[in-house]
Design goal:
Shape: globular
Distance between the termini: 83 Å
Oligomer: single chain
CATH architecture of the domain at 548-665: Orthogonal Bundle
Radius of gyration: 35 Å
C-alpha cells in the first residue's frame, strides 16, 4: 500500500482557495508532467499565494525525487503558516513514504488538530494504524472515508478528494470482501474525479491498478496508457506499466518502463523494487539483492521491499524450515517487531520465492501471510496457484474456492478453478512412480503409452541422475474442452493465464502438457515427457535451486538425439556475428525470448554448455554441478568448486567450443555472406570484375525469370573465370530451358570438382541423372555432396529418394536411419523403417521403429498392427497383446483384430483373457468359424 502513498505525494494538489488565475495554470503544468515549468509557475505565486505556492513547489520537487528539498519547502511554509492543515498533511505523507512513521504521526496530529476532516492526513493516519498492526483502528479509519463520501458527496469539488476516498474505499472493500465496491470505485468514483479535472491522471492510474490486481491485463493496460497520455512524465505510471509487463514475464519491456520511471525520479521506491523483480523473475537473487538494499535505504520500513529482501536472503543462504539465526529469520523478527500483522511482508516474501520457483517455501509464507493478516484479499489466490504447481490439487481447490468467494474477479483464480473443473472429468492412470491424468474421451490410448514410457524413462534417468523423486510424480495431459484448446487449458493449469508458449512445463512436483492428440501437427511427445521428467528430478534433487539454463541443458542432453539441422543453421549464422547468450543472459532466452529463434538458441546453447563441460572436464562434470546447486551455490561458485576455474575462464572455453562446433558445420569452407538483390546489384556495379558477385546476381535474375540479364551476367563471370561453377550452373539452367540438355550436362561435368563440389552444380547434375534413371550415378553425385556438407540433410534425403526409386532397400534403410535421428517428429520415416525391417525379418528393429513411430503418433492403427506382428515374432508376447489391445481400441468393430488379439493372448499364456476376447468377438460375429474353433480348443 505504501506505493500508493508515494503516488499521492506526487499528485495531490491541496492548494488554498485563491482568485488568481495563475494557480490553475501551475497545477495544470504539474498534472501534465512539466515539473520544472510548474515549479517556476508556483514560485511566482509565493508573494500572493504562499501556501499554494509551497504545496505546488513541494509536489514538483517530489515528482522528480527531490524529497529533502520538498520537506524543506513544506517545513519552511509550516513555520510561516501554521494555521493551514494542508502543509502538515503533506509533511505526514512525505515522512510516511520514507519510513519515518513517528514523524508522520506528529504531522498527522498537527493537521487533524487544525482540521479533523483533512483527507490526506486521515489517509496517512489509517496507513499508520495498518503498518503498526492496529487493524481495528485501521479498519475504522478506512470506513470513515466511506461515511464522509456518503455525507458530503454533493459538496466534493476536488479530484484529489475522490482519489483519497477511492483508495480508502478499495482498502475497506478488500478487507470486507465487498466486490461491488470495486466496481463502483472503478466505474463511478474515479470517472467522477476525471469529470472534475480532465487532466487528473491519478484516477486512471488507480483504475489500472485495480484491474492489475485482478490480473485483468487488457483493461489495466488500457487505463495505464490513458494515464500516460495525460502525463507521460509520471514515474508512478511507468512503474505500474512495469508491473503489468512483469505479470506477463515481458522482462525487457518491464525494464524499459522501470528505466523511464527512474529517469524521471531516481528515488522512486516502487521502480527500484520492480528492478529487483526483473532479476527475481530471471532467477537472479544475487543481482536483486543490491537493488533491494538500495530500496531499503529509501524506506527502511517498507514491507514490500523487506519481503523481497528476505526472499533473497533465503534463496542465497539456503531456505530452511527453521530460520532462527539466519538473515531471513532476523529480518522476519525485525519486521514483525514493528508490525505483528505484517501480512504484506509475507506476501512479498512468498511472491519473490514464487518468482524464483521455490514453490514449497513460497507456499509456507503465503500461508503465513493469510494467517497474519486475514484481511488480505489476494493471498489465498496466490497460495492456491502455488498448490497447483506443487500438484496438491485438493488443497488448491479448497484454497482457490475461498479465494474466489473473496474476489470473483481475479482472472487467475477463476481460470484455475475452471482447470480443476476440467480435471474433474479426467481419469487417473497410476503406475509405480507416476499418476497420469487424462481426458478419457480422447486420451485413453495416449495415457497407456505415456505410462509405459515414463516408467522406462524413470528407470534410466534415475540411475543417470542418481536421484529418485519422492512419491509419485503427477503428469497431466490436456485436450480441447469447453471451446478451449488443449494449449489453453495447459497454460491456465501452469500460470492461470494464456501466455505459456511451450507445450509442456514442469513445476518440480508435477508436469502439465498439451495432449499429442490435441496438437495441430505430430510431435514426438515421448521426448517432451522425458524432457520434463528431467526437470522433475533436477528441481527436487537440488531443492529447487538449479538455474533454468542448467536444467534445460540437462533435459536436452538426456534426450539423446542429434542437434537439429535448424539449430546448426542458426549457429552457423549467429555465432560469427556474436549473436549469442552467455551465463548472464541465457535465462532470459527461456523466460521471455525476444523471438522464437532466441528461444531455440537458448535451448541450443544450454545443451552446448553440457556438451562443453563433458568434453573439457570429464564424465562427472554434470554431476559435480548438480551437487553444487544442491548445496545452494551460485553458478560462479559452482564452476569454481566443480572445475577449479573462474567463470571468465569457463566462458572463454565455452566460446571456443561453440566456435569449433560451428567451424565443423561448414566443411566446404566459409559460406558467402547473405545479400539481398539490391545489395548484390550495388556490389556488382561497384566491382564489375568480381566473378562471384556477377554469378550470384545472375542466379538472382534467373530466379526472377529474367533470362537475358542472367545470361549476360553469367557470361561476364565466365569471361573472368571460365570454370566458375555458379556461373556455369546458371548457363546450364538456361540451356535446359531451351531443351539443350546434352550441352547443359557437358558444361556441368566440365566444372564439377569431385573433391569440393559446388552445391548447385552437383545438385542439378545428380537430379538429371536421377531423372534418366541412372541411379548409381545419381547416388554417387549426391554422396559427394553429402560428404562435402554432412550437416545438410537435403543431400541425405536426396539419396533416400534415389534408393527408394531404385528399390535398394538396404541402402534406403541406412540413410533413413540418419534422417530419423535428425527429425524426431517424422512418423513417415519411422513407419518406412519399420516396414523395411519387417520385410527383412529383423523383427526387433521393426518393433523398435514402431515404438518410435508411436512416440510421434499414438493413434496410428497401422503402426500398432505392425508393432504387434513384430513383437509376436520376437517372442515378446505380452507386449504384442498390449499392441493388439490398442488396435482393438482404435478399431473396435474389426473382428480380425480381435481374433489376432485372442491368438496373441494364447501365445502369452493369458488364456482367460483370450476366452473373454473370443466371446466378445462371437457376440459381434456369430459366424466366425476361426473364433469358435479357437474358443473350443481353449475350453478343452
Amino acid at each position: 500500500m505504501k506505493r500508493i502513498v508515494l503516488g499521492i505525494l506526487a499528485c495531490c494538489l491541496i492548494a488554498e482557495p485563491a482568485a488568481a488565475e495563475d494557480t490553475p495554470a501551475a497545477q495544470q503544468l504539474l498534472l501534465t508532467g512539466k515539473y520544472g515549468e510548474a515549479k517556476q509557475a508556483f514560485e511566482k505565486l509565493t508573494a500572493n499565494q504562499p501556501v499554494a505556492a509551497a504545496l505546488g513547489i513541494a509536489q514538483a520537487q517530489s515528482a522528480v525525487g527531490e524529497y529533502d528539498a520538498a520537506a524543506k519547502t513544506l517545513s519552511d511554509a509550516a513555520e510561516k503558516h501554521s494555521d493551514h492543515p494542508e502543509i502538515p498533511a503533506q509533511l505526514a505523507c512525505l515522512a510516511f513514504s520514507h519510513g519515518d512513521y513517528e514523524g508522520a504521526a506528529r504531522h498527522v496530529a498537527a493537521a487533524l488538530k487544525l482540521d479533523d476532516r483533512q483527507l490526506l492526513a486521515r489517509w496517512v493516519a489509517a496507513e499508520l494504524h495498518r503498518t503498526a498492526g492496529r487493524l481495528e483502528e485501521a479498519d475504522k479509519a478506512y470506513e470513515w472515508f466511506i461515511d464522509y463520501y456518503a455525507a458530503e458527496q454533493s459538496k466534493i469539488t476536488r479530484s484529489e478528494s475522490l482519489h483519497l476516498i477511492g483508495l480508502a474505499g478499495a482498502q475497506y472493500a478488500r478487507w470486507h470482501r465487498n466486490h461491488r465496491q470495486f466496481s463502483f470505485i472503478a466505474n463511478t468514483l474515479y470517472p467522477d474525479a476525471i469529470g472534475l479535472e480532465k487532466a487528473y491522471w491519478p484516477a486512471r492510474l488507480e483504475t489500472g491498478r485495480l484491474f492489475l490486481e485482478k490480473f485483468n491485463k487488457a483493461t489495466a493496460d488500457k487505463q495505464l496508457r490513458a494515464a500516460l497520455e495525460m502525463n507521460p512524465n509520471a514515474a508512478d505510471i511507468h512503474a505500474a506499466m512495469a508491473e503489468l509487463q512483469l505479470q506477463g514475464y515481458n522482462l525487457a519491456e518491464a525494464q524499459s518502463s522501470i528505466d523511464r520511471a527512474l529517469e524521471i525520479n531516481p528515488k522512486h521506491l516502487a521502480a527500484h523494487r520492480l528492478a529487483a523483480d526483473v532479476h527475481l523473475s530471471n532467477f537472479e537473487p544475487h543481482k536483486a539483492l543490491p537493488l533491494l538494499e538500495k530500496a531499503r535505504q529509501l524506506n527502511p520500513r517498507d514491507e514490500a521491499t523487506l519481503g523481497r529482501l528476505a526472499a533473497c536472503y533465503g534463496a542465497i543462504d539456503g531456505l530452511k524450515d527453521d530460520v532462527k539465526g539466519t538473515r531471513l529469520g532476523e529480518l522476519i523478527d525485525e519486521v514483525t517487531g514493528h508490525n505483528p500483522h505484517a501480512g504484506e511482508f509475507y506476501v512479498a516474501l512468498g511472491d519473490a520465492l514464487d518468482k524464483l520457483r521455490k514453490f514449497p517455501h513460497a507456499a509456507i509464507y503465503y500461508q503465513q501471510a493469510a494467517k497474519t493478516l486475514p484481511q488480505l484479499m489476494g493471498v489465498r489466490g496466490q497460495l492456491g496457484l502455488v498448490y497447483m504447481r506443487l500438484g496438491q490439487e485438493t488443497k488448491a481447490r479448497k484454497t482457490l474456492d475461498a479465494a474466489f468467494d473473496i474476489d470473483p474477479f481475479n482472472v487467475r483464480v477463476s481460470n484455475s478453478l475452471k482447470v480443476l473443473e476440467v480435471l474433474d472429468e479426467y481419469e487417473t492412470l497410476e503406475t509405480k512412480h507416476f499418476q497420469i491424468r487424462f481426458d478419457p474421451k480422447h486420451d485413453k490410448i495416449t495415457a497407456r503409452y505415456a505410462a509405459r514410457w515414463l516408467e522406462e524413462v524413470y528407470s534410466k534417468l534415475s540411475k543417470q541422475l542418481d536421484y529418485e523423486p519422492e512419491g509419485k510424480s503427477l503428469f497431466e495431459l490436456f485436450n480441447k474442452s469447453r471451446n478451449t484448446s488443449g494449449h489453453g487449458w495447459f497454460s491456465a493449469r501452469m500460470v492461470g493465464l494464456p501466455h505459456v508458449h511451450t507445450i509442456g512445463a514442469c513445476a518440480g512436483k508435477m508436469v502439465a502438457m498439451v495432449s499429442p492428440t490435441a496438437m495441430p501437427s505430430p510431435i514426438n511427445w515421448a521426448r517432451v515427457l522425458q524432457h520434463e521428467f528431467v526437470h522433475v528430478v533436477n528441481l527436487q534433487q537440488t531443492n529447487f535451486n538449479i538455474p533454468h539454463w542448467y536444467t534445460e541443458a540437462l533435459a536436452v542432453h538426456y534426450e539423446g538425439t542429434p542437434r537439429p539441422a535448424s539449430w546448426n543453421e542458426m549457429l552457423a549464422r549467429r555465432v560469427p556475428q556474436g549473436d549469442m547468450f552467455n551465463l548472464d543472459t541465457i535465462n532470459m532466452g527461456f523466460v521471455r525470448p525476444g523471438s522464437s529463434e532466441d528461444w531455440q538458441m537458448a535451448y541450443c546453447q544450454a545443451e552446448l554448455y553440457a556438451e562443453y563441460m563433458l568434453k573439457r572436464f570429464g564424465d562427472d562434470a554434470l554431476a559435480k554441478m548438480l551437487d553444487c546447486y544442491a548445496d545452494n551455490l551460485t553458478t560462479p561458485a559452482a564452476i569454481k568448486r566443480s572445475f577449479g576455474i573462474e567463470t571468465e575462464d569457463f566462458e572463454k572455453g565455452y566460446q571456443a567450443h561453440v566456435k569449433k562446433v560451428v567451424a565443423s558445420l561448414v566443411v566446404g569452407g566459409k559460406k558467402p555472406k547473405r545479400m539481398t538483390f539490391s545489395e548484390l546489384d550495388r556490389a556488382h556495379r561497384e566491382d564489375p570484375k568480381n566473378a562471384d558477385t556477377a554469378a550470384r546476381l545472375a542466379l538472382e535474375y534467373f530466379r526472377r525469370r529474367a533470362g537475358p540479364k542472367a545470361r549476360g551476367l553469367a557470361d561476364k563471370a565466365l569471361a573472368i573465370n571460365d570454370k566458375h561453377p555458379l556461373a556455369t550452373y546458371v548457363k546450364a539452367r538456361l540451356f535446359l530451358s531451351i531443351g539443350e540438355k546434352p550441352a547443359a550436362i557437358k558444361m556441368l561435368e566440365a566444372v564439377l570438382d569431385e573433391k569440393k563440389p559446388e552445391e548447385h552444380v552437383v545438385g542439378l547434375l545428380a537430379a538429371m541423372r536421377l531423372k534418366e534413371e541412372k541411379y548409381n550415378e545419381a547416388a554417387r553425385l549426391y554422396g559427394l555432396a553429402a560428404k562435402q556438407d554432412p550437416e545438410n540433410l537435403k543431400w541425405t534425403k536426396a539419396l533416400a529418394h534415389v534408393y527408394l526409386k531404385s528399390g535398394d532397400d538396404a541402402k534406403l534403410g541406412e540413410v533413413l536411419v540418419t534422417i530419423a535421428g535428425h527429425e524426431p517428429d517424422s512418423i513417415t520415416i519411422r513407419k518406412k523403417l519399420a516396414r523395411l525391417a519387417l520385410a527383412a525379418k529383423d523383427y526387433e528393429a521393426a518393433a523398435r521403429w514402431c515404438q518410435e513411430a508411436i512416440h510421434v503418433d499414438v493413434m496410428d492403427l497401422a503402426v500398432h498392427r505392425t508393432a504387434a506382428v513384430a513383437l509376436g515374432k520376437c517372442g515378446r508376447h505380452d507386449d504384442a497383446v498390449f499392441e493388439y489391445e490398442t488396435t482393438v481400441m482404435l478399431s473396435p468393430k474389426d473382428v480380425r483384430l480381435r481374433l489376432a488379439l485372442a491368438k496373441a493372448c494364447v501365445a502369452a499364456k493369458r488364456i482367460d483373457q483370450a476366452k473373454k476376447v473370443l466371446q466378445e468377438l462371437l457376440e459381434m460375429d456369430a459366424q466366425s468359424t476361426a473364433a469358435r474353433e479357437l474358443l473350443e480348443t481353449l475350453r478343452k
